Amino acid sequence: MMMTEDPAGPMESVEPSDPMAAHRTDGGGAANDVASGGDDAAGEVAGGGDPADDEAVIPSWATRIYAVPNGIMPLPVAKSKPPSPALALAGNGLAPKSGILNIDKPAGRTSHDVVQAVRRASGEQRVGHAGTLDPMATGVLVVCLGSATRVVDDVQAFVKGYRARITLGSATDTYDAMGQVTSTGDAGQLAAIGRADVEAALVAFRGEIAQVPPMVSALKHEGKRLYELARRGIEVERAARSVTVHALDILDWSPPDVTVDLLCSRGTYVRSIAHDLGAVLGVGGHLSALERTRVGPFTVDDATSLARVVEAFMEGWYGHILHPLDTALVAYPAIVADDAVAADMRAGRQFDAAPPADHRQPQVRVYHSGGAFVGMARWDAVTERWQPSRVFPPAANQAADPVADPADIQSDNQSDNISGHPADSKG
Fold first, then answer.
1. Class of the 165-242+261-290 domain?
2. Does the global pTM surpass 0.85?
C-alpha cells in the first residue's frame, strides 16, 4: 500500500518554483560558478530507536528545506535513547557521517583544500564538493559526505547566486585579479563611462547566452586541463557554451568598480562576464571580488565557517550542521510507502502507485511511513509502475540526535590546520 504525504490528493506534483523568485537573494554573493563537482556527496543523517521510547521530534539540524510553498512536509523522526547500535558509530552514539555541509569558503583556499580539511576532520573518505570556487572567492561551497555523494549532480543543477565586483579599465589573462594585466583601457574613455552605459551593456548578458570559458579553467582540451595549457603559455580555441543568467543587477557603481548580483545556471563563469563586459565597453575589465551567495536552498547567511566545521567533527557535534541528502531533491514530489513498498524499493523491484500528475517530471521521492527517506523512483510508462532509480541505505537516511549541543561541549581539540595546495578551481 502507498499513499501520498499530501492530504490534498494522490501523488500531487510539486511544481518547480520560478528560479527568479525561489532562488532570489537580497545580498550576497558571487563566486565563479563552475558548477561541476569534485567527488560526490550527501546522505541523510540517521539514528534509530523505538518511537515509543521518547517524544517524536524533528531536530533543527535535520529539518528539510523546501523550495516550493506546497512541498511535502517531512515526517517526524524519533529520538533514540540510545541510537540503534547498527547506526551508531563505534558505539559512541554519534550520528553517521553522511550528509550535506553548507560551508562558507574562506578566501585563499581552493575547493580541494576545503574537501581535504573535511576529509581529515571527519575520517570519512567519501567527501566531495558540488561546484568549484576559485581561491580568491568566498561564500557557499556545498560539500557532500558519505552516501550524500550520490546527489552531488542534483546540487550542481541548482540555480546559483553570486555577488561580484568588476573592475573596469584593465583585462587580465585569468579574467580576475589573480592574473597578469594584458591590456589597459584609455583613461579618457574610462572616465566617460557612466552607470547608464554599464546598465545598457549588461542587457546582453541576461537570459540564455553563449559564453566562451576562460583559458584558466578546469575544462579539458584533448585530455588536458585548460589551466595546465595556460601555465605553459598555450592558448587554444574554446567553443562557446550555452548558459542562462536569470538575473543580473547593479548593486553599486563606484567607478571604475561596478558591483552586481546575479543568478545563473551551472557552468556559468562569472569571470567571463566580467571580462566580456569590459570588452563591450571598450576599456577592458576583470573580476576583482567574488562571493557565492547561494546554491539552491543553501545560502551564505546559513553557511558554517570551515574552522567551525572542523571543530564540529573533532568535538562530535557535527550532526547539528549536516543537512539530510534529500535536501538536494526537494524539487521532486514525494510519496509515503508502507513496509511492503519500502521493501520493494530497497530490492529494486517495481511497485504500484498512482501515476505522476505531470509526466514531464516522472520522478518522486519515496519516504517510509516511519519518516526515513528511502530513495528515488521513476515512472515506467511501459509497465505503468514505478521503478526504483536510486536507493539509499537505511543508515544514511534516518536521523540520530547529536550527542550534545555545541554550547555544552568543552574540548581541547584544535581546528584542522590546512596547508595550501595548488589551485584546482575550475572557474
1. alpha beta
2. no
